[in-house]
């Protein structure tokens, strides 16, 4: 139905084009614009009626004028998908960016995607060892989880994401992950950092990249992650791959969303972001998971930078309300020179309970993790008090907790960028060793049976 | 064009405007060539504004819109239990059969299996005078739940015929003398509360097995509670704990605009969990509504009404029903999104001006009632609230707190320390204790209210002392106050903290809760005595039997052992005096 070209633009506002006197145009239909100099732009219908059609233009409306030709392509946005995607680099609109041929489609997939029927989901419960103690012990990741990294500018979130991508494995299985990487408005330098690392480790051959950089069209960012997730779904649910989707930076995505909302003069929600941002984000984050009868899985690592390091900002806030936990990167720890500077206290893995314990990681895992949290939280809180009243005012228990907080940061959190710790000896045993700095009578989160079995000095074995 | 059908004029997300048709407000219409289900939500000149319950991509102006003459209703009858529905009562299992694992659109599915046969046992007889809501028979729907068949509200008279036997739910099982035919299924419009004879004051607690809830901030059967909290603070786990362990006879769990995996978890787990009150799988008493965050927002808006209507229906049978809505904020956001598409005048933070009245109407459907059939039934409503940034000064939290009688305030700080349930004991409240105290005295212990008061005042005192400690350190406090701090720590770590994921700790009988609270007070009394006799604080705090008493709660059979453990602790504390 790629017929008529209209020259009936009445208004252009921000990234939006308004036109009239069209044949009936479908909601969400894709649109092609031809500028007077022959340049082509792409867009999508946001609102349609007998009198007026509103089109959002991905490349921005620069140089669009009343003479611009607008053609409705009769279909919603689709991505050509096939196994041939693996190893390719595409731009933010899904066109090859690596000089290679067009993707030969096995299927043209609707990029909005459909909701997974909750009845058809399979509960994610397979522990993924990342080799990073803070994550494995305290915010354990499972296959099919969506676990964002909440970071801020200048912090090493990319190193952490890459370290996870390199080291992630299912203990006792050699299934490899396919990495789908999606860049939204990041700098060329950051992008090169990712590419070099993927090349260095040979992961590139098992990766698909969708790239929209800082100087690429901002509105295009609204489709880039959808393309990436469409590719991920196809690979996971049609070809049984375990897919790890890393997308960065969600903050840039949300800025583009805000821009569209403003141009439509919508009533904004909090801090100028559209009221439907929660739903919009959910339609991407919820595309993680495992489904009955399919072998593959989609695990998501969205990265977002918190404006002003503020976790209550709508972008991290709405994300945290949808994702299955979050890994929070801390400027304070980074400034102390600790890598990875993960603050475990506000971090969380909601699927952890399903993925750990006997037969999965180790029977004492939950107990140890709870105890680490409680002791570290206690110690950190006391730092504030000590600053006021000095250590003399502390009782025995408090002194031990205070000391433990330092030890925890220095020996448990801190590890090198290529240090891959195993969950049992590398991480949990280390935790037990560090907990010997606190008298067992203060370790109220530990069950007696685990103390009897695992405590380095008090165990009965 | 007849007025039974018109044409689409405009599509903007889930909102479609039609012309050439004059439907009633809240009438269900079929939209577009695929016949998507929608509901009329505004009439505006010759335009009818419709919210569409399915994805609208690809729909064009000019496609048809057809009236159905029906308002949005649910089907009520045997088959509701163990089901999981979307927001408009389509069974998700049926959708999977027709669509596969992804929810596409344009498929209808009946809320109840119309062909399945159930064994109807008549309890009324020919000649009986019945009225709307009277129970005329029952079906053993699940192992534990007897589904009572009632005359639909508004229908009554003398029974002309009634027959036990195997029938499907649309077959007439009872005829009245005026010719009215009654089948096992009835339909009810979701936005209209089901009628009852009168509302009664709640005076029985809904026992949840969660210590901080039952002991300090109880909810009554037929009461309302709000759980606001930032993400990760424990709203969903708390709701799920209530769905698992509360002593309601029926549970309706609404996942409204939240995560898919959370519903899957309930679905996979409940069939394997045993209801502590019946010893049978929990699934037997449960109906779920799952309209997750990525499913259409209009159906999310409807999901809350679908759920509460089902809850009222079971209430009308004389049951105590507990309904959880996670999260009411997502429901409010669905209203906001639709309202903004309608270009309505926004109120605070973009929410429609009618937000607070919708919230009030919803919670008003809770209550303990005398049913039309003369029974006592209740619907308790527990709503999670997800305030942006955790700040409850926003409209949904405020609108909720004005109505509900119990406030379980979740606290991010506690969650970060992994103090769970992360319910703040200083800011939370319940307005029910007064009404419930007699029940506690009669059923648990005569001094139950007094023990509760002691425990909560210890926590208050601790908060005051902590302010001083922040300035001078705890060592600077007099001994008796240092002991108070230890007692309060015991309340927090031993009593208030409760691990939902621990096989034993996840549920505490109310009687045991009382014993545990008493044990803490015993520790306080014995320690005071010992310290007056010369023992040091460290001595009494560190008696090994106290640790055993505390850790013991993770072990099976704690209720039987607590007395003995307590005796040992008292003895050891007394001995610290002699050592000195
Ligand atoms: N009672 C509890 N016992 C143990 N863990 C809990 C409890 N309540 C919450 N949690 C922990 O907190 C996490 C977040 O809780 P959740 O209810 O999902 O938060 P919310 O719904 O408020 O975002 C859970 O995944 C779990 O790890
Ligand atoms: Mg939740």
Task: Tell me what the structure shows.
The complex is a heterodimer of chains A (461) and B (580). Chain A has helices at 133-138, 157-167, 188-200, 224-239, 250-263, 277-285, 314-322, 331-335, 352-355, 365-389, 396-413, 423-435, 448-454, and strands at 5-6, 9-13, 16-20, 29-34, 40-49, 52-57, 69-76, 78-81, 89-91, 107-110, 115-116, 121-122, 127-129, 141-142, 149-151, 169-170, 177-186, 207-213, 242-248, 290-291, 297-305, 325-329, 342-349. Chain A is an alpha/beta fold. The model of chain B has no long low-confidence stretch (mean pLDDT 94). Chain B contains 16 helices and 29 strands. In chain B, helix 7 (355-364) packs parallel to helix 8 (395-401) and helix 11 (448-472) crosses helix 13. In chain B, strands 8, 19, 22, 23, 24, 25, 26, 27, 28 and 29 form a ten-stranded mixed sheet that branches. The radius of gyration of chain B is 27 Å and the shape is globular. In chain B, strand 1 and strand 2 form a beta hairpin. The longest helix of chain B has 25 residues, at 448-472. Chain B folds into four domains: 5-71, Elongation Factor Tu (Ef-tu), domain 3 (Beta Barrel); 115-184, Beta Barrel (OB fold (Dihydrolipoamide Acetyltransferase, E2P)), CATH 2.40.50.100; 198-431, P-loop containing nucleotide triphosphate hydrolases (Rossmann fold, 3-Layer(aba) Sandwich), CATH 3.40.50; 448-579, Bovine Mitochondrial F1-atpase, Atp Synthase Beta Chain, Chain D, domain 3 (Bovine Mitochondrial F1-ATPase, ATP Synthase Beta Chain, Chain D, domain3), CATH 1.10.1140. Chains A and B meet through strand 5, strand 11, strand 12, helix 6 and helix 7 of A and strand 1, helix 1, strand 9, helix 4 and helix 6 of B. The complex binds adenosine-5'-diphosphate and magnesium ion (MG). Adenosine-5'-diphosphate binds at residues 229, 231-237, 420-421, 498-501 of chain B.
